[in-house]
């Protein structure tokens, strides 16, 4: 705060702070207060709103606890989102390490361009491309059958298709934080560890990963939150047996017409996601300031 006033002066710094506070109040605080209010109220006809039946309670939240199908989908969404974050980390870590420590400037520019350009396309269109790729009569099955790997087409859409689509959709949110963290690691530290006889696995375990833990934690938090709140990938790449919790929330709002129960479900998802994020930061021993960097 003091640095902000020293750098920009009192007037400009006050304007910046006011804009940030207005943004937080209008875009974060107010919507969440409204969601909390909806979650605690019953779904009543307009004529009964504000009447004796319009009292706040935990009924909408307790409904989730007593609904076994919705409860199972909720926990499946949580562990599946953690799986998406884990798989994305496994995919991105070696790429980020190569980009940060071994790639030439030309290779780095080409690789980043190839990674970023597909994200110029809308997420829905990118997911539809995966829908076509994984279709029962799609190109993936055709190539595998042509190569003699499979005898008959495989129905990829379902949990596997959702996982693949999300890993692809959120790869940059994992890759770039890890790349930024590893890029700041001096090559001399890695060379010194190698000169002392450390194996490659030991160098990563004792030197690279501890240095990059803030980037890894940031990537895991971003990817987990985006996966848990995703709707497009589960809706297009999933199957009737692989429903996502966000699809149930959507159905409460726009098909069931019960905004109160939908808000309660969304509130539970938000609270549990924040809990997972705090646990992740605790495990990696980083704080929100490290994530913000």
Structure description:
The longest helix is centred in the first third of the chain and has 39 residues, at 2-40. Helix 1 crosses helix 13 and helix 12 packs antiparallel against helix 13 (259-284). By secondary structure, this protein is an all-alpha fold. 25% of the residues are buried. The mean pLDDT is 87. The protein contains 14 helices and no strands. The protein has helices at residues 2-40, 59-66, 68-101, 105-116, 123-133, 139-146, 159-169, 171-183, 187-195, 200-228, 232-237, 245-254, 259-284, 288-292. Helices cover 75% and strands 0% of the residues. It starts with a helix and ends with a helix.
Strand and helix layout:
Blueprint: H1 2-40, H2 59-66, H3 68-101, H4 105-116, H5 123-133, H6 139-146, H7 159-169, H8 171-183, H9 187-195, H10 200-228, H11 232-237, H12 245-254, H13 259-284, H14 288-292
Helix pairs in contact: 1-13, 2-13, 3-7, 3-8, 3-10, 8-10, 9-10, 10-13, 12-13
As a percent range, the share of helical residues equals over 70%
Rough outline: globular
Number of helices: 14
Structural class: mainly alpha
Radius of gyration (CA) equals 23 Å
- End-to-end separation: 16 Å
């Amino acid at each position: 705060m003091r640095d902000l006033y020293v750098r920009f002066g009192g007037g400009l710094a006050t304007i910046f702070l006011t804009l940030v506070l207005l943004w937080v109040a209008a875009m974060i605080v107010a919507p969440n207060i409204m969601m909390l209010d909806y979650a605690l109220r019953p779904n009543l006809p307009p004529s009964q709103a504000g009447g004796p039946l319009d009292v706040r309670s935990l009924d909408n939240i307790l409904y989730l606890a007593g609904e076994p199908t919705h409860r199972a989908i909720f926990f499946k969404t949580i562990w599946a989102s953690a799986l998406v974050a884990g798989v994305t980390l496994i995919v991105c870590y070696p790429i980020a390490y190569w980009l940060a420590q071994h790639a030439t400037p030309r290779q780095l520019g080409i690789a980043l361009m190839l990674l970023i350009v597909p994200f110029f396309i809308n997420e829905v269109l990118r997911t539809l491309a995966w829908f076509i790729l994984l279709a029962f009569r799609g190109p993936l099955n055709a190539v595998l059958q042509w190569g003699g790997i499979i005898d008959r087409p495989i129905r990829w859409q379902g949990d596997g298709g959702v996982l693949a689509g999300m890993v692809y959709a959120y790869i940059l949110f994992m890759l770039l934080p890890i790349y930024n963290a590893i890029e700041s690691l001096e090559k001399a530290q890695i060379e010194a560890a190698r000169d002392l006889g450390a194996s490659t696995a030991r160098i990563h375990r004792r030197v690279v990963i501890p240095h990059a833990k803030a980037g890894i934690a940031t990537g895991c938090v971003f990817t987990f939150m985006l996966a848990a709140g995703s709707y497009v990938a589960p809706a297009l790449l999933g199957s009737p047996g692989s429903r996502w919790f966000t699809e149930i929330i959507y159905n409460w709002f726009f098909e069931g017409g019960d905004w109160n129960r939908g808000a309660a479900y969304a509130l539970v998802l938000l609270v549990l996601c924040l809990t997972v994020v705090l646990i992740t930061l605790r495990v990696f021993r980083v704080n929100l300031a490290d994530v913000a960097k």
